[in-house]
Design brief:
With 370 residues, this protein is mainly α. It contains 16 helices and no strands. The longest helix has 38 residues.
Length: 370
């Protein structure tokens, strides 16, 4: 604890990030291979799942030839890797459309939901954890820990239904009424980024990026100053964000409390207080920064929980995102979509974990010395 807290150098950060990226490559390759094999181990025939009563032997033979399902698994895998290296996720068996188009339409919904749920869980959870730790064994501490235990205990689908009943049914006609489902109210008109910025002539990758961010509704409406749709989109997000983020909030609050209490009991904290350092400065300069290391780790890990919980949340609140699409694709034996969405989620998760690792160097200079 005698190390001076300074910002890490650019050279150190570059080396640190490169090492983490090199470690992530085999992990990502392993994820792709495992998902590829497991998807093909699912029972059922994708031709029958996609075509139903129209699936004759001749049609299924042509179907399997079209999607390469007659090839050995390893051959299919290396062909798929070749496609990925060219930026091609393939064509959906269920929808008959390029998977890239489906990703652009549906991935922003899940990213928006998970990002706000993580922000909600982190801000409220850290605040409650700090309040509980600084007032140990007080009424605030007891109430916070009881609330955290309750938050962890309630399943997402139960909490979601309770929230819908309380704020959409029981509160009908009051200021507390909130939309029970969907992303926008029926008939709500808005412009995409391409329309608002006069870039409708753009094509290819730049247009795909614009369309992707256009489907992150709150970002789109904020940067294009469309305030009525923005307010409507935020209102539609409140209930699903609370339902999805409550379990993570409770976990973050408990970890923050226990971590801060542990740090406040260390010798260097007692020494700082003995030297007459004000409690506010002890907390801000010494205790809080060290206590945040396990909290930051937990926040990074919560992303996986939020993405997994999105399946239930999107189904209950009628949000067409990754969760709902994955469920439909698994039941419909649409291997191509399952693989693509899993890869994207894995990349997001690895990126967040990289950010968490990099944050250690800012929070604790001893990481740099090692």
């Amino acid at each position: 604890h005698g190390v001076t807290a300074t910002w890490p150098s650019l050279e150190f950060m570059a080396q640190f990030i490169i090492r983490r990226l090199l470690v992530s490559i085999p992990a990502l390759f392993g994820i792709i291979f495992i998902v590829f094999v497991l998807a093909r181990m699912l029972p059922g025939d994708p031709c029958l799942a996609a075509l139903g009563e129209r699936a004759t032997d001749e049609i299924c033979d042509a179907f399997n030839d079209r999607y390469g399902l007659n090839e050995p698994i390893l051959t299919q895998f290396f062909l798929y890797i070749g496609q990925l290296l060219q930026g091609d996720f393939g064509e959906s068996i269920r929808y008959g459309r390029p998977v890239t188009e489906i990703l652009i339409e549906r991935l922003p919904t899940t990213i928006e939901l998970a990002a706000y749920a993580l922000l909600f869980a982190s801000v409220i959870g850290i605040t409650l954890g700090l309040a509980a730790a600084l007032r140990r064994n007080s009424k605030i501490d007891v109430a916070t820990m009881m609330g955290a235990t309750l938050g962890v205990s309630i399943p997402i689908f139960v909490l979601a239904l309770i929230l819908q009943y309380v704020f959409a049914v029981a509160a009908r006609g009051t200021a507390l009424q909130l939309p029970p489902s969907g992303r926008l109210s029926p008939g709500m008109q808005f412009d995409t980024l391409a329309q608002a910025w006069g870039l409708e002539h753009w094509e290819g990758f730049p247009r795909m990026v614009l369309d992707f961010f256009s489907n992150v509704y709150t970002f789109n409406f904020l940067v294009t100053f469309q305030f009525d749709p923005l307010i409507d989109a935020v209102q539609h997000l409140i209930l699903p964000v609370i339902a999805l983020g409550t379990i993570s909030l409770a976990i973050i609050a408990r970890i923050t409390r226990s971590s801060l209490l542990e740090v406040l009991g260390l010798d260097y904290i007692r020494t700082a207080r003995a030297k007459g350092v004000a409690d506010r400065n002890v907390l801000r300069k010494h205790a809080f920064r060290n206590a945040m290391l396990p909290v930051v780790t937990i926040i990074g890990l919560q992303l996986g929980i939020l993405l997994a919980g999105a399946v239930l949340t999107e189904t209950i609140f009628n949000l067409t995102g990754v969760g709902k699409t994955m469920y439909e694709s698994i039941t419909g034996r649409d291997y191509i979509v399952v693989q693509a969405f899993t890869i994207i989620i894995a990349v997001i998760y690895l990126t967040v974990n990289l950010i968490v690792d990099v944050s250690y160097a800012f929070l604790d200079p001893r990481v740099r010395l090692k």
